[in-house]
Amino acid sequence: MIDETIYKYALINAAKHKGKAIEKAVIGAVMSNEPQLRKKAQEVSKKTKSIVEKVNKMTPQEQKRELQRLGIKLEEKKAKKKKGLPPLPNIQEKVIMRFAPNPSGPLHIGHARAAILNHEYAKKYKGKLILRMEDTDPRRVDPQAYQMIQEDLKWLGIKWDQLIIQSDRIPIYHKYAEKLLQKGKGYICTCKPREFKKLKDQSKPCPCRNLPVEENLKRWEQMQEMPEGKAVLRVKTDLKHKNPAIRDWVGLRIVEEAHPRTGKKYRVYPTMNFAVTIDDHLLGITHVLRGKDHITNTEKQEYLYKHLGWKPPTFIHYGRLHMDNIQLSTSKTREGIQKGTYKGWDDPRLGTIRAIKRRGIQAQAIREAMIEIGAKIADTTLTWKKIYGLNKNILDDMANRYFFIAEPIAFKIKGLPEHLKGTIERPLHPDHPERGQRKIPFNGEIYIQKDDLKDAKLLRLVDAVNVKVRDKSLEYHSKSLEKAREYHAKIIHWIPIEGSIPAKVIMPNAETIEGLLEPDAKKLKTDDIIQLERFGFARVDKTNKKITLYYTHK
Ligand code: GLU
């Protein structure tokens, strides 16, 4: 009977591991699934070795047949919901999409949606992706952002075919401003903003609106020299439009601030809506995929397409993405960095791409989340929990395991038999024996975690021995796992005092947990992702004398 049960679990385990069952895993499975056999743990241990050997000698077909014969149906890994993105409408020519961030800071997870969706669609249709830096407001440009954005995109796995920087193209916008004036579809307005607004709100034209073309062209010339705020170029729309914001919107304005890239070369800058329209047309963008907070902008832009006799691209607006507990605002973040609240753009409390990366979240997890959310118009909420779930699927297989002891307490185990001292071996990864073993010297002088002592009478030091918890000491009790089970001992991790490595873990709330890592952690390199057993996943950030880790999630 016992043989048959072990045989069954060995077959199941073999199926999970490419036909090769792992002895320890089989024992573990028997113990946890067949509680009645726990009393016979020793017998199970003894028999498993030969049964596993027998199973491992069988061909995959034989193993399969045996599973069938025993009526065991393996839980098929749920076929991955490979939903992918729904098709884009209006596919007639080569698809050209763009991601158009403002270089006011690095990207955050909110930007990732626009970036990933545009990239995915460009790939899907073998089209082209343009990265366009929208920097026509000199006051909102962070000179470092051009570089940071490109780094962030590269990390996200986004490749663009062309880089456009709008501040390189000011003469182009000026040319189309003039064209618009020539066509009588725009005008230079010198009204005080407050006066203009009063008229506009009553759907009345301001005195500038109906000036002749020549006068407007003259004013346009003069505008290049005027002080900031004295004149704007307005794009004619419908003064009766139900949304006053759309009525005769501003296409170009004077900004006296030096631009970080072009200095004081220009004074008249296009607004976002003006530059976006000109560029989307000139760059041949076929599909504009953006948030529904841009719907009013789309409407404004449609007037400009019409005035210039251009065919608008297909506009697709997706819903808002609410993000729970994620600090996203670039200006607030910048303020926080300046005040010293945040350590930098990659502070673990932030939702920037660089913060997420530093914490060991994988670009693939972000991509999967965004594809799942897609471009639907309904609002969605994205939680850390969701991101962690996707990320864990990736990390589980990738991360090697190590012991980390927070709040270590040192003990010398009393009464430890000499012959039980030695080196414990533990797999770097339970499902990947080929990655090898960690070697953990065990001479009875150990650290354990303070909180593991709470209410404990008997503890099992995993893979080593069972110890009785005395007032201020640990005392050897027994060796076997079965004994530990019998006494319901908590199984805890531990590390040897000798060779332990000082470490600190930076938590998502930026708190630091000091502790110690097992000796083999000395092999770790920056950017390795590991699992601290019983603690959580973490990314190796620095490896000096002290190892710094960033906590990812449980
Ligand atoms: N620079 C704009 C933004 O980031 C682009 C909007 C768009 O047209 O997609 O909001």
Q: What proportion of the residues is helical, as a percent range?
A: 25-40%
Rg is 33 Å
Secondary-structure class: alpha/beta
* Major sheet size, sense and barrel closure: 7 strands, mixed
N-to-C span: 38 Å
Tell me, rounded to a whole number, the average pLDDT.
95
Low-confidence stretches: none
Beta-strand residue fraction: 15-25%
Task: Count every helix, treating DSSP H or I runs of 4 or more residues as helices.
Answer: 16
Q: Cofactors and ligands present? A: glutamic acid
Structural topology:
Blueprint: H1 2-16, H2 23-33, H3 41-57, H4 60-69, E1 96-99, H5 109-124, E2 128-133, H6 145-156, E3 162-165, H7 170-182, E4 186-189, H8 193-201, H9 213-223, E5 232-235, E6 250-254, E7 268-270, H10 272-282, E8 287-291, H11 295-307, E9 314-318, E10 321-323, H12 330-339, H13 353-358, H14 363-373, E11 380-382, H15 384-398, E12 400-402, E13 404-406, E14 408-412, E15 422-427, E16 437-442, E17 445-449, E18 458-461, E19 466-469, E20 474-478, H16 481-486, E21 490-492, E22 495-496, E23 501-506, E24 512-517, E25 529-532, E26 536-543, E27 547-551
Parallel strand pairs: 1-2, 2-3, 8-9, 10-11, 12-25, 18-21, 23-27
Antiparallel strand pairs: 4-5, 5-6, 6-7, 13-24, 14-17, 15-16, 17-22, 18-19, 19-20, 23-24, 25-26, 26-27
Helix pairs in contact: 1-2, 1-3, 1-4, 2-3, 5-14, 10-11, 14-15
